[in-house]
Automatic annotation (TrEMBL):
The lineage of its organism: Bacteria, Pseudomonadati, Pseudomonadota, Alphaproteobacteria, Hyphomicrobiales. Keywords: Membrane, Transmembrane, Transmembrane helix. This is SPW repeat-containing integral membrane domain-containing protein. Residues 13-105 form the SPW repeat-containing integral membrane domain. It holds the Pfam family SPW. It comes from Microvirga vignae.
Length: 124
């Protein structure tokens, strides 16, 4: 299990925190709080993304990033899995934020796996 801590990793994690907070706030900002599944999914999924990103700020492990990829996939697919695809603001919010989470986390994983060996922190 690889770990790395540097500025690039911190930037990716802070970006994911911001995306999670944006997803949590989206039901109020975009007016879909009356849509139960859409708003609850935004709050819970956004909370999961924020939690995982904050854990990654302390020290990045690859398993945290893989869980973030899974969360991003869930967020992207949730409008169809939870049947709120007809709520246009909720659908596009989930799709865009989910895809952004996937992209930024994939970049972070790429950085984690391709980091120079002297940047790697050995786990004891």
């Amino acid at each position: 299990m690889g770990t790395v801590n540097d500025r690039v990793d911190t930037t990716f994690s802070i970006t994911n925190v911001a995306l999670g907070v944006l997803l949590i706030a989206a039901p109020w900002l975009l007016g879909f709080t009356d849509e139960t599944w859409a708003s609850r999914n935004a709050w819970v999924s956004g909370g999961v993304v924020v939690l995982l990103a904050l854990l990654a700020l302390v020290r990045t492990y690859d398993w945290e990033e893989w869980l973030n990829v899974i969360a991003g996939l869930w967020i992207t697919a949730s409008p169809w899995l939870l049947w709120f695809e007809d709520v246009v603001p909720a659908r596009w919010t989930h799709i865009i934020i989910g895809l952004c989470i996937i992209v930024f986390t994939a970049l972070e994983l790429r950085h984690l796996y391709l980091a120079p060996k002297d940047m790697m922190i050995s786990q004891r």
